[in-house]
Amino acid sequence: MVRYMRCLHENSQQTAKCRQQSKDYLQCRMDKYVFNTYESFFDQYCILFFTYCFLYYFLNYVYNVTYYLQYFLFYILHNCGDDADDDQTWSQGQSL
Predict the structure, then answer these.
(1) Does residue 43 share a domain with residue 29?
(2) Looking at the structure, do residues 28 and 40 belong to the same domain, yes or no?
(3) Amino acid 42: pLDDT
(4) How far apart are CA 6 and CA 48, in angstroms?
(5) pTM, to two decimals
(6) Containing structural domain, residue 79
(7) How confident is the model at residue 48, as a pLDDT?
(8) Do 51 and 58 form a contact (C-beta atoms < 8 A)?
(9) Is the domain of 57 the same as that of 21?
(10) Among candidates 31, 23, 17, which has minimal Cα distance to 1?
């Protein structure tokens, strides 16, 4: 890793000139089993699990908001319609 970073520094961060150092570094990691498949599987599983939880709770929240909004609008429109009729009949002087 140090060789690769030094190469980047010497070549003004041009990665094409440091390909061999990058390949050597990755080969060393592969040889020493740094890429552990169990850990990568566990990390992927955690990401999927938390994504699933987020989507579940977010969609549940959206569903509840739309349900209560629908209920609220129905209640308001239903009551406002009755009030508008009462106001109209009262303004015309008719008895209720």
Answers:
(1) no
(2) no
(3) 73
(4) 37
(5) 0.36
(6) 36-96
(7) 87
(8) no
(9) no
(10) 23
What pLDDT is attached to residue 9?
Answer: 81
pLDDT tens for the chain, 96 residues: list them.
Answer: 778 788 878 888 877 888 888 888 888 877 776 555 556 677 778 888 888 888 899 999 998 888 888 888 888 887 765 555 555 555 555 555
Q: Burial letters for 40-70: b for 16+ Cβ neighbours within 10 Å, e otherwise?
A: eeeeeeeeeeeeeeeeeeeeeeeeeeeeeee
Q: How many domains does the chain have?
A: 2
Within this chain, do residues 89 and 45 fall inside the same structural domain, yes or no? Answer: yes
**Could you tell me if 44 and 62 lie in one domain?**
yes
Same structural domain, 67 and 83: yes
Token digits of residue 39: 């850990």
Cβ contacts of residue 8 below 8 Å, gap of 6+? 14, 15, 18
